[in-house]
From TrEMBL:
Protein name: Citrate synthase
GO MF annotation, one: acyltransferase activity, acyl groups converted into alkyl on transfer
GO BP annotation list: monocarboxylic acid metabolic process; tricarboxylic acid cycle
Pfam families xrefs: Citrate_synt (PF00285)
Record flagged with keyword Nucleotidyltransferase: no
Claim: Transferase is one of the keywords in the record: yes
Amino acid sequence: MKRIQILKRHIQAVKVKEEVKDTLTVLDNRTGVKYELPIRENMISAKNLSTVKDSKGNITKYIDPGYLNTVSGHTRVSFVDGEQGILEYRGYSIKELAEKSTFIEVAYLLIYEDLPTIQQLEEFSKKIMNHSSLPIELRNIMSCFKNDAHPMGMFISAMSGLSTFHPEANPALAGQSCYDDPYKRDKHISNILGISPTISAAAYRHKNQKEFNNPRDGGYIENFFYMLHHEKGTDYQPHPVLVKALDVMFILHAEHGFSCSAAAVRHLASANTDVYNCIAGGAAALYGTLHGGANEAVLRMLMKIGSKANVPAFIEKVKNKEEKLMGFGHRMYKCYEIRPKIVKTIALKVFEVCGREELFDVALEIEQIALKDPYFIKRRLFPNIDLFSGVVYKAMGFPPEFCPVLFAMPRLVSWLAHWSEFLDDPNRKITRPQQVYTGHRNRKYVPQCDIKAQVKIDLEVPNTITEAQIEPSDRYMNP
């Protein structure tokens, strides 16, 4: 008898479980119509949501300014949990990669999904270095920039200009399927990774009115330092601590999901834009002070504050909305994430070589006050990676305006990884968000000025067009 009761309870539990559906029931109070929308991976498809219509049959659209809760695609590149402060590249924690890996190894991981073997890493590094030379014509173009031009502007322009040297990468010229060949795709990836330090160093040298340095054999970061600082007649060797510090900084900045810049690259790729202009577009998005330009903005903010003694007054101005606090808050993170903590450790190592940077103490004072202030705690505003990264770069000798370039160089890896992943997505479509029009309608044109010699064309389309009507005039034909 007891077994029968247990069996009945089990059957009842199975029935209840079967009745639970992975759907969202929506009742439209305007029409009284009830909709059941499927839920897949804890997401509702906007396409299914479009079945909801008003009494006139108009589709009810989903509005989400800034894409705060809109998923535009799947990715295997990185995992971000803003509530827990977790960041993983292809399943590996960012802390472990920063401690044990190198930037080139991480670049391989992000682009090709797995950590490389020793042989794969050697081949990958060699391919990158073999593509590090800047075309002489592009060097000449960069030489034409004003000396006070922003390095990021030069970087973006040069990356876009690089596309003209690779017609085989242009789908308009080489065919819509020019990236289907993995070998050709890898060639452009290696080329962009290899040439970006050369472009960056050229922008740095040009701003300092110095001749460009050609790349040389060696490590990725060592070669970058060489192109930045080598002078004729000297045997420049970068300090190994600074090389390691910049390598770790590059790892920390290499990837962060569908960020503004990665989304921009995917957006451009959806139109079948060539990879060089996709990357230039990503760099342009990164340039903004609310994205990669924030490290420059933070540094300028710290320079404006000047000293620890001025921090409390500055914080009060921030709370009164008289000043803007940079280096705090993040779209994703609602806790104190790991990256700024690692950057603080890197800063101390750099100071042992270059001397302590006073602005670091200003940043620490801001951090200490903000972490205890209810104003910031309530708003869940915690330090982000930009609070300390600019200070590290300044200690290394970089000017504030070069900080976004130092962000763009490693983030190239993210853009290339997402670009390649997007090309392989069977569900990819050209990106075209919906809009809500709020402007004028049906306005009648009223001439505002008298144009005597204006050519008038009758745009009334006839039912049929004869050959005589489309016959060109000899007067305007080429001889």
